[in-house]
Write a structure and sequence with these properties.
12 strands, single chain, alpha+beta, about 475 residues, Helix Hairpins, Beta-Lactamase, 14 helices
Length: about 475
């Protein structure tokens, strides 16, 4: 690589470049001038050699004088040209180190020109970085204050399932000294496989997940129940998860109250069932003895209808308590055709009585679920569709699948449901009052049973309805 093969990168290189350039120019000019004189002054006159000698001395003196001037000029030029560049380099290094206390250079301010423009851009970058640093610090402080003040346990992991952050409630629950970073694997702290798998699924599918799970805590050596909401932390392109954050909501007290309620309902239902059976038996005997009295028969019919309704409520409550108290659910591959046709066959009499038609279509052969819970879902939804659809109506039952779930749709031709009722449809004993038709009697527990069955199966149920357009109930089963 030669001296002139690239531009100078430092002050020394620039000074060397200018000096050599000046020397070369002076030598070339002097040599050309000397040869030119030799060509002019040719002859045998004795004064010519003396004149040439004097000219050589003048040329030598001029060479050193001009070289000195060129050297002084080069030093001044390099200082003026590279002085601001050094200052700008130091400023850029300070910005890179995060030192945002620098100020504008006076030399650059006086010189103006391109260096001044570059200094202005660096100052703008410095101001933007300073503002962003203050914003990040403020937002970080606010976030830490929110997380610290939260009553729920919060835990963050990276993509390799290493714990990166936890707050004070999490530290207290899992017997750690203070909030911070453990540096442990998630599996070393969280023993529930359901929670670990939900973390993995949230980071794989890049969307929020939730799960209910239980774990024994060392804080009181007892089983605690948690509802855990897990959200992935996405990279800048939102194409990959760089971790996940979870909120552990302790629902142990709620579970205890729920268990007391379920035990009470189950015990009350059992206690009511025995005397009700006896009452029905004695009532049938009394009714048969008074069969000739037409006035009493009408009263007997009212009593019998209410006893049957009470018996239905007790049966539904027992069924609901059994579903809610189930600790685990066994999943198998259930043929949708057989399961659906069995329920249709059981309701055949009601369908025939109203001269209705059932249109059953399916795009899948099997669904991975629990056969008993699925029968409860099918029975309650199709029975409701038959009950609320008018004479000669068509009821559509559809099985299908999408990327993330399998769905069951039951669509009736009934009067439809107002939007303000739809949010409470799946509550216990909630029934929509139909002012035009009082013949639709039920326990108000059917849809509550459907919701609880779907929760046990890890799915959800939804309703789409509008007045005069019928109702469609859709159950989503996880694949």
């Amino acid at each position: 690589m030669t001296l002139f093969s690239r531009a100078p990168q430092t002050r020394t290189q620039a000074l060397k470049w200018l000096v050599v350039y000046s020397v070369a120019n002076l030598l070339i000019i002097g040599t050309v001038f000397r040869f030119y004189l030799n060509s002019l002054l040719q002859g045998d006159e004795p004064w010519i050699p003396e004149l040439l000698a004097e000219i050589d001395q003048v040329l030598i003196f001029s060479f050193w004088a001009l070289l000195g001037i060129a050297l002084i000029f080069s030093v001044v030029f390099v200082s003026v040209f590279f002085g601001p560049l050094g200052s700008l380099i130091e400023k850029a290094k300070s910005i890179l180190r995060g030192d945002l206390s620098i100020k504008k250079s006076d030399i650059i301010k006086e010189s103006r020109g391109e260096w001044y423009q570059l200094d202005l851009f660096l100052n703008k970058i410095w101001k933007d970085l300073k503002r962003k640093k203050e914003d990040v610090a403020r937002e970080r402080g606010e976030l830490e204050a929110i997380i610290t003040a939260a009553n729920d346990a919060i835990l963050a992991v990276d993509s390799d399932m290493n714990i990166r952050y936890y707050n004070a409630p999490m530290a207290l629950m899992f017997d750690q000294k203070e909030e911070g970073s453990w540096g442990k694997k998630l599996t070393e702290v969280v023993r529930s496989q359901k929670i670990v798998e939900t973390f993995q699924r949230a980071m794989k599918e890049l969307k929020s997940q939730w799960v209910e799970a239980q774990q024994e805590l060392s804080i009181d050596s007892s089983i605690h129940y948690f509802k855990v909401s897990i959200s992935p932390l996405l990279d800048e392109k939102k194409a990959k998860a760089r971790g996940a954050v979870a909120i552990f909501h302790d629902i142990t007290d709620h579970k205890k109250v729920e268990k007391v309620r379920m035990d009470f309902v189950a015990n009350a239902s059992h206690e009511l069932k025995t005397p009700l059976t006896s009452i029905q038996g004695y009532f049938s005997h009394i009714k048969s003895q008074c069969s000739a009295n037409d006035e009493l028969q009408e009263s007997f019919t009212v009593v019998e209808n209410n006893m049957n309704r009470l018996n239905s409520i007790i049966q539904d409550l027992l069924q609901l308590s059994k579903i809610e108290s189930a600790e685990s659910v066994t999943f198998t591959d259930v043929p949708v055709l057989e399961a659906t046709e069995q329920v249709i066959h059981d309701l055949k009499g009601h369908v025939k009585e109203k001269n209705q038609s059932l249109l059953f279509t399916y795009d899948i052969d099997v669904v991975r679920t629990n056969i008993d819970l699925l029968e409860h879902v099918l029975m309650n939804l199709i029975e409701n569709a038959v009950k609320y659809s008018p004479q000669d109506a068509q009821i559509k039952i559809t099985w299908g699948q999408k990327a993330s779930h399998v769905f069951l749709s039951v669509k009736d031709s009934g009067p439809g449901i107002e939007s303000f009722h739809q949010g409470r449809l799946f509550e216990r004993f909630y029934r929509v009052r139909d002012e035009t038709n009082h013949s639709h009697k039920g326990t108000g527990l059917g849809l509550s049973i459907v919701r609880n069955c779907m929760q046990k199966l890890g799915g959800t149920v939804d309703v789409k309805s509008a007045p005069g357009l019928g109702s469609e109930f859709i159950c989503y089963f996880p694949r």
